[in-house]
Each structure stands twice: as structure tokens, then as C-alpha cells.
């Protein structure tokens, strides 16, 4: 099963999202994951509720264009004849902010992360390990059974983060 969601936005943006669940012969191997692409206009609202509540939103104060991609597949192998699966996962993310408005450019945390009046780019990637227990009768629409998911991710400089 490969569900896909697409959103076209009135201001020229688009969001694509997929969260596949692929089961291979005999359910010995599975590929799950999350894949996303986003290109939208957004607003920086400041930090905290009171700032957001009283914030002036416009293309000269708070608006910016965000583009981002996430590629996050999980590879699961059945251990023997059990209901336990284990395997690796990777997570690759790229973020690109362009046309940042004044309030975002003036934000200290934006500057500290490397943002400038031209924008901000960030790439990070990580590797991880998954361990799942799955006794569901029908994984896509279970009537009975249990699903437990344990995972750990590592994002370090040598992986590009």
C-alpha cells in the first residue's frame, strides 16, 4: 500500500506526502517509510504565545518561502518465524528558506543557525535501527493483535548533519 497526499495551495505552494507500507513475499521483508516534499509560503510568528498573538503578518514583516524534502525509508526483516522484525532506517532532510522577511532575519535563533537576509539552507542525515513486534492479523486494518515499535536514530557530522 502506497498512500499519497497532494495539496495545492492558493499562494503557489505544493505539498506531497507518502507513507508507504510494502509487504513482500511471505511477509519476510517490509519497506515502510515517510517521503515528503513541501514548497510553500509561510510566516514566522516569533517565539511564544504572546508574541504570536500580537504579531503583524505580511510579506515585509514575517513571510518567507520554505522548500523541504524528507526521504526516510525503513527496511524490516522478519527474525525467524517470529513476529519480530529488525532492520535499518535512514533519514535525509533538506531545508531551504528563501525571501525571509525582516522579523525572521532579526530573530537571534535564526541568525545563530546560520540564517541571513538571503535565506537559510540546512542538510541533515541520520541512520538508525528499528525493532518491531507485530502480531496484527491484517497490518493495514487490524482487528486484533499488537504492534510495538522501538527505534533509535543517530545524526552526526560524519553523516552530513
Structural overview:
The chain has 161 residues and is mainly β. It has one domain. It is built from three helices and eight strands, in the order ββββαββααββ. Strands 1, 2, 3, 4, 5, 6, 7 and 8 form an eight-stranded antiparallel sheet that branches. The longest helix is centred in the first third of the chain and has 5 residues. It is elongated. The mean pLDDT is 89. This is Bacterial surface antigen (D15) domain-containing protein.
What composes the largest sheet?
8 strands, antiparallel
The average pLDDT is 89
Name the structural class: mainly beta
Count the strands? 8
The low-confidence runs, each spanning 5 or more residues with pLDDT under 50, are none
Count of discrete domains: 1
Distance between the termini: 31 Å
Q: Note the overall shape.
A: elongated
Please tell me how large the radius of gyration is. 20 Å
Assign a percent range to the helix content. under 10%
Oligomer: single chain
The helix tally amounts to: 3
Order of helices and strands: EEEEHEEHHEE
Strand content: over 45%
Amino acid at each position: 500500500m502506497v498512500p499519497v497526499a497532494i495539496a495545492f495551495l492558493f499562494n503557489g505552494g505544493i505539498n506531497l506526502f507518502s507513507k508507504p507500507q510494502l509487504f513482500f513475499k511471505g511477509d519476510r521483508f517490509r519497506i515502510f517509510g515517510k517521503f515528503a516534499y513541501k514548497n510553500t509560503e509561510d510566516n514566522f510568528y516569533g517565539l511564544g504565545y504572546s508574541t504570536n498573538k500580537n504579531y503583524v503578518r505580511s510579506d515585509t514583516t514575517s513571510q518567507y518561502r520554505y522548500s523541504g524534502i524528507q526521504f526516510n525509508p525503513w527496511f524490516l526483516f522478519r527474525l525467524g518465524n517470529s513476529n519480530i522484525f529488525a532492520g535499518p532506517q535512514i533519514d535525509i532532510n533538506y531545508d531551504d528558506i528563501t525571501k525571509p522577511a525582516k522579523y525572521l532575519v532579526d530573530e537571534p535563533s535564526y541568525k545563530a543557525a546560520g540564517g541571513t537576509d538571503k535565506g537559510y539552507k540546512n542538510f541533515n542525515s541520520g541512520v538508525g535501527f528499528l525493532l518491531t513486534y507485530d502480531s496484527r492479523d491484517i497490518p493495514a486494518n487490524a482487528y486484533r493483535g499488537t504492534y510495538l515499535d522501538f527505534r533509535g536514530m543517530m545524526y552526526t557530522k560524519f553523516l552530513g548533519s
